[in-house]
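We close this part of the discussion by returning to an individual protein. The encoding preserves chain order, so positions in sequence and tokens coincide. The sequence in question and its structure tokens are set out directly beneath this paragraph:

===
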Amino acid sequence: MNGTLKIMIRTLFILLLSVYAYFVNAQCTFERYYTFYPITSAIFKTIKTSDGGFLTVMGGGFDSIFPGQDMDMLLVKNDSCGNTLWKTHYGYSGEGNDAIDAVEAANGDYLVTGNAGWQQATANIRVARFTKNGQFVWAKLYSGLIDSRVYSIIKRKNKNSYVVGGFMDDSHNGTDMKGYIIEINDNDCRFV
């Protein structure tokens, strides 16, 4: 075989291998179960990420002396075929937390919104930032007098800020509920 023919065969082999790898990965299907022993968990949202994978956020409670009162924000990062790249959780002992929604920042970090409460007396909106590798960066609470809940977070187009939406209730019986949105900046969660 001459050198040109060897190069053509090698190029064809690489091309065929690349096409095969593309179709194998593009057509993968999967089913996954997530456990954070000893945490029981429920998924609230899955978002597509810029690397072709996805991030799933959920809330979960430790099976402890105070069921439902020791819960964490739970995050799982997967590749495009559902393989777990990392998983992490965030919360404080004796505090009820969950993760309701998430958005990817321009640098690949994730801003995650959820609810945080203590012994069912009050609930607060929590926004937490995690690196693209799942490391906790910071968290901030936003609160009404009695009860605050979050349902979504979106990135503002052409701005380095996010809008968080939910409600606040300043009564004990749900008679003073108001829709609530806040805009926060990209770096440290301060109001814009």
